[in-house]
Design a protein that fits this description.
Blueprint lengths: L2 H7 L6 E2 L2 E2 L3 H18 L6 H11 L10 H4 L7 H7 L7 H30 L7 H25 L3 H19 L2 H14 L15 H25 L33 H18 L6 H12 L8 H15 L6 H16 L3 H21 L35
Antiparallel strand pairs: 1-2
């Protein structure tokens, strides 16, 4: 069976099963929830939007010192070229209007991501007796935790680069479940081209079957090279951008490792990416590919010298995927534990040191849980490779249960 045929058999959200809509009510509630948080955050929003506007103007030569010399002259712009290209879509509007449109656009992507995750979970659960009403409830409760953090990144800080990296990764997860290996490679590359820390999501490629994994990886490498190499080859000073530092804040979990440097240590960024990749590879090897996004986000927050609340959006996307696609429990407690631990501590805990300890405890605890907590075998006894149902844990993805694209 081709992946397109398999997708056609999946319950369509908006289609009907047994004469009733598969998904409607919980999406409406999440839309209202998103609107409420948007209105709360928009009054003091778009804190970092000026970086996108400046970078877009530099990239397209509207001001001197840009073009392919962008990163050589402005290492503080730690944003991928795809982020600047998308930001250019809002440039024709007056500044305030473009800013508001960008905020609305990014908020809408977050809501759409919840729909995508729900559809992904439904397709992953085909043939396993998945209860769609319980799935709706699970996505609703997990989404209620996800939205506040999504509004932090999309409205309050307006980090379009982070938004695109997470959105494209969500699309890659769905492509993985649907069996479209080429799309997985392309989407992960575009995520990295939007924000470099997205390299932590690349272990998702290992969840692909061996016959198509190399081709998907080639797409990833090729598109990442196409986006970044022109800057490095034409201006060698671009390498300095990788050494750009930010203050090591008192609430950083790095402090609990004895790292008291005033700014980013030279080894920190490579260690951050290496740890995320290593944890992701371990997750795939342990047949838990749905944990890859969460583990990469854990590595980011535990080793980053900064503690901006928008970082938590990547964590909440990881818990959303794990709780919705990776598990069957009605209550997505990992998502709510993340929200309370990371966002709640930032708002309610006065001690910066204790905030760092909570961040470290959550990252370590959630990583240990998703990697090593015992799991029940799926009801159909088949395991759960992407696209093969089960409780979201990957089995041998070369199974004949479904045929992945090969042409």
């Amino acid at each position: 069976m081709r992946n397109g045929e398999r997708a056609a058999d999946a319950p369509r959200h908006g289609a009907r099963i047994g004469g009733r809509p598969v998904v409607r009510w919980h999406t409406a509630l999440l839309t209202v929830w998103t609107a409420v948080w948007f209105l709360v955050a928009e009054r003091h929003g778009a804190v970092s939007w000026h970086y996108l506007r400046t970078g877009e103007e530099l990239l397209f030569g509207q001001v001197p010192g840009g073009g392919l010399a962008l990163y050589a002259h402005h290492p503080e712009l730690q944003i991928g070229p795809v982020g600047f290209v998308v930001a250019a879509l809002f440039e024709p509007f007056p500044a305030a209007v473009g800013e508001n449109l960008a905020e609305a656009f990014m908020s809408g992507l977050g809501l759409y991501m919840l729909v995508l995750v729900g559809r992904t979970a439904a397709e992953q659960g085909l043939g396993t007796g998945l209860n769609h009403r319980r799935l709706q409830q699970r996505v609703l409760v997990a989404g209620a935790a996800f939205i506040p953090m999504w509004v932090e990144v999309s409205v309050r800080f307006a980090h379009l680069d982070d938004v695109l990296a997470l959105f494209l990764t969500t699309l890659a997860v769905r492509a993985l479940v649907r069996g479209n290996a080429t799309a997985v490679g392309v989407l992960l590359a575009l995520a990295v081209d939007s924000k470099p820390w997205a390299v932590g999501f690349l272990p998702l490629l290992l969840a692909l079957p061996r016959p198509v994994r190399l081709r998907a990886g080639a797409w990833t490498v090729g598109l990442v090279a196409a986006a970044w190499l022109p800057f490095y080859l034409t201006h060698l000073d671009t390498f300095h951008a990788a050494r750009f530092t930010i203050p090591n804040q008192p609430a950083s979990a790095l402090r609990w490792f004895g790292v008291n440097d005033p700014a980013t240590p030279w080894w920190d960024r490579p260690a951050q990416m290496s740890l995320g990749i290593a944890l992701g590879v371990l997750a795939v090897r342990r047949n838990r590919w749905t944990a890859v996004v969460l583990l990469a986000a854990d590595a980011r927050i535990v080793l980053d010298p900064s503690v901006y609340t928008y970082y938590n959006a990547s964590v909440l996307l990881g818990t959303l995927i794990w709780d919705s696609v990776g598990r069957r429990w009605l209550v997505p407690w990992v998502s709510w534990t993340a929200l309370i631990s990371l966002y709640g501590s930032a708002l309610l805990v006065p001690s910066a040191s204790v905030q760092g300890l909570i961040r470290l405890a959550f990252a370590a605890g959630s990583a240990l849980y998703v990697l090593f907590w015992p799991r029940r075998p799926p009801r159909n006894g088949l395991g759960a490779s992407p696209g093969a149902g089960g409780d979201g844990q990957a089995r041998s993805v070369s199974s004949s249960a479904y045929t992945w694209e090969s042409g």
